[in-house]
Each structure stands twice: as structure tokens, then as C-alpha cells.
Amino acid sequence: MAFKTLQQLTAATDAQGGDLIATVRSTGPLQSLTLALLRSTYLDVAYAPLAEAFLIATVADILAGTSTTKGMTPGDAYGAFAEVALTDAATIAVDMSAFLNAAVTLGGNRTLGNPTNPKVGQTGYIRLIQDATGSRTLAFGSAWKRQGGAPTLSTAAGAVDVLVYEVISASYVLYDVKLNPS
Asked: Is residue 1 part of a domain?
């Protein structure tokens, strides 16, 4: 049952002896209006423990991309889009369960490793930043696919190029690089 008004939610809670959590659990899957009423009326004001009554995805849940039973708040969605720093190394590890958007400062000539934990349909960007020396090159693992092959990056010290990507399959990540966008 979806509650359409605050009065319906309050009446059902009173019928449960004032136990809001029991009321929510007895309704089965929450309809969006019920969830909105709960968040605006109870959860955000006085019933923080109510969060256990329904499942809200965390940033980690969103990045893992495996839950089919959790709702998402705008704050968690934006948290999942936050840029994450990748670790510079001879082969840069790309664990796609840890980010949608990332950045790495190239401290030498590097290879962008094949991604681990990619999710089909995942899209995002990786900012590629030249260190203070500049002229760093970037090779790509075999899963990275681009028309025309690997691009030549901007070479100036501190230059920033942006790699945009879409996961087509675990072994096929379509990408392009926007050179030094301004």
C-alpha cells in the first residue's frame, strides 16, 4: 500500500501502536510517494533510525552496480560521480568498481591497464594530467578501443586531457580523448 498523504501514513502508524518502522515494513515495497513522505516528514526530522526500515543505496552500492532492491538519493548519486584519484604507476590500475570519474597525474610514460570490475553501460571520464616535467606518453591495455588507435596526449607541463569512456563489455571499453579542453 502506498500512502498518498501524511494523514494516511499517520493513521496507519497509530493503528500499529505508534510504531512507524512496523508500519513501513508491513506495507511491502515502498512506493515513491510513501518514500518521499517518510523522508520529508519523519526521516530527515526526527526518525533517523528509520533508515533501517527501507533500503537506501550508499555510494559504494551505486559504484558496485549490483543491487536491484535499493533506492538512491540525489546526494548519493552525486557522491558516486565524485572524481577519484588513480594511483600513478608504470601500469595504472583501473578498478571501475571504485569510480565513475577519476584523475591521474602521469609521473612518467605509462600504460592505462585493462579495467577490472567494469559494468556494461558504465560511462565516465578520466582526467590525464601531465606532471611538472610534461611530455609523458600513455599506452592503453587491449580492452581500451578507439578509432585510430592511441592518441598523442598534450605535452606541456601541467596540461590536462580528458579521456571519456563507455563500457561496451568487460573486454571492450570505447574511449576518446579530448585534448587540453579549455
From this structure: no
- Higher per-residue pLDDT: 53 or 19: 19
Retrieve residue 169's grid coordinates: 563489455
Q: Average pLDDT over the chain, rounded to whole?
A: 81
Same domain, 99 and 40: no
Backbone angles phi, psi at 130, to 5 degrees: -75, 140
126 and 69 in a single domain? The answer is no
How far is it, in rounded angstroms, from Cα 179 to Cα 58? 34
Same structural domain, 113 and 38 = no
The Cα 111–Cα 154 span in angstroms is: 16
Domain holding 112, by residue range, is 86-178
Q: What is d(CA 2, CA 15) in angstroms, rounded to the nearest whole number? A: 16
Mean pLDDT, residues 52-61 taken together: 69
Element (H, E) at 173: strand 172-178
What pTM does this model have?
0.68
> Going by C-beta distance under 8 Å and a sequence separation of 6 or more, which residues neighbour residue 182?
none
Query: Which of 21, 43, 77 corresponds to the end of one domain?
Result: 77
